[in-house]
Amino acid sequence: MDLMQMKWQKHAYGLHHGLSVDLVRQNPNMLDNPNLRVWRDSLEASEALVVAKCEKQREINEARDEALKRFEFEGEVYQTGEASLGKIYSKAALLSQNDSNVIVTWITEDNRRVVFSVAKFKEFATALMEEQESIVFKARALKDEVERAQSIDAAEAISWDR
Question: Is the model's pLDDT at 24 over the cut of 60?
Answer without folding.
Answer: yes
